[in-house]
Design brief:
5-stranded mixed sheet, single chain, 5-stranded antiparallel sheet, guanyl-nucleotide exchange factor activity, Tripartite_DENN, elongated, alpha+beta, small GTPase binding, guanine-nucleotide releasing factor, 14 strands, endosome, 20% strand
Length: 376
């Protein structure tokens, strides 16, 4: 396989470094799950034409929905990403130029499925696979590059570009969005989003443009940086029974939709964000847990001040919020006790005796519940 050969020449490091690189590659290459190809032909038919290895019918149907070629509105989304039952999907779609060898195809989508959240990494790789398919018109060449990355973490070619897995650090993907943009849009109301995330509530975000939904939703988990948990992110959802069933199995989540009909589904959210109208709504059933008080005002002011500081980068703002979050957990510490099994629980009576303002006590109680610190 020609593409893989180039690996030998790129690695002249000493044994220790080589072993370390090999370990990084091994860990990285275990993350990719599959590659697929969807085409739209000159008759307007959209078909799933090839995949490696095989995939399930339900995942195929889901990816056909996500790829934008089946959309009535003919809008082309060059790149979308999302998650379905712990499998991440990344879809790059291109229009076929007249000069291509693909004479009966007008558009196609390359789909990658993986275990990790890293849109920049998979966008870069799918773009290379698209160039290969445009040039050769055969999935075989794509598969060679896919296997090269799967086994060696690299694919190289003069004309189609090179890809190196280890150039894309997962933590950079966590920091790619802009917290400052969120705060500039919502100001003090950002505290509602912070509180909802702290309490592991269900957040639904709506905007008619998928790019806006993806940019906004991917940034939200950074508000609770101490968890570094992007598995709560479902950045591209349809109101489809199977997808919603998967979503409703999660305790807390961030779900992005381009269909305004989702606003009429209060069973799906505790907090609804209408991104197009810069509006945040707390659902009636979540109001009690989300009651705001002095502590929330303090955190909200800190978030706004930090985000409005022109000297501060987004990652510094995240750091400031993370430090304040850590402080909140120190409030809980005096009322926590370890069980015989070593699990930490909240002593509810001790918390009540402290006589915090009602909103603070309420928040700390619900936070303990979210962190599974309540004795059942």
């Amino acid at each position: 396989m020609g593409v893989a050969k180039s690996w030998g020449g790129t690695c002249s490091a000493e044994p220790g470094k080589r072993r370390k690189m090999a370990a990084v590659v091994a860990m990285d290459t275990q993350l990719m799950l599959g590659v697929g190809l969807i085409e739209k032909d000159t008759n307007g038919e959209v078909l799933w034409v090839w995949c490696y290895p095989s995939t399930t019918a339900s995942l195929r149907n889901l990816l056909l929905r996500k790829c934008c070629l089946t959309d009535e509105n003919k809008l082309l989304h060059p790149f979308v990403f999302g998650q379905y039952r712990r499998t991440w999907f990344y879809v790059t779609t291109v229009e076929v130029p007249d000069s291509s060898v693909l004479k009966k195809v007008t558009h196609f989508s390359i789909v990658l499925t993986a275990k990790d959240f890293n849109p920049e990494k998979y966008a870069a790789f799918t773009r290379i696979l698209c160039r290969i398919y445009l040039k050769y018109g055969s999935p075989v060449k794509m598969m060679e590059s896919y296997i090269a990355v799967l086994t060696k973490g690299i694919c190289q070619s003069e004309e189609n570009g090179s890809f190196l897995s280890r150039d894309f650090d997962g933590r950079k993907a966590y920091l790619a969005g802009s917290i400052k943009d969120i705060v500039s849009q919502f100001g003090m109301e950002t505290i509602i989003l912070h509180t909802a995330l702290m309490l592991k509530k269900r957040i639904v975000v709506y905007h008619p443009k998928i790019e806006a939904v993806q940019e906004f939703t991917r940034t939200l988990p950074a508000l609770v940086w101490h968890r570094q948990d992007w598995s709560i992110l479902h950045s591209y959802m349809h109101l489809h029974a199977e997808e919603l069933e998967g979503l409703q199995m999660c305790t807390g989540y961030i779900a992005g939709f381009v269909d305004l009909e989702v606003s009429n589904r209060p069973d799906l959210y505790d907090v609804f964000v209408n991104l197009a109208d810069s509006e945040i709504i707390i659902a009636p059933l979540a109001k009690e847990a989300m009651t705001m008080g002095k502590l929330h005002k303090e955190i909200g002011q800190l978030i706004v001040q930090s985000a409005e500081d022109p000297e501060k980068s987004d990652s510094q703002v995240i750091q400031d919020i993370a430090l304040k979050t850590k402080e909140i957990f120190t409030h809980l510490a005096p009322f926590s006790e370890a069980s015989d099994a070593g699990k930490v629980f909240l002593n509810v009576e001790a918390l009540k005796q402290k006589r915090f303002p009602p909103a603070t006590e309420n928040f700390l109680y619900h936070l303990a519940a979210a962190e599974q610190m309540l004795k059942v």
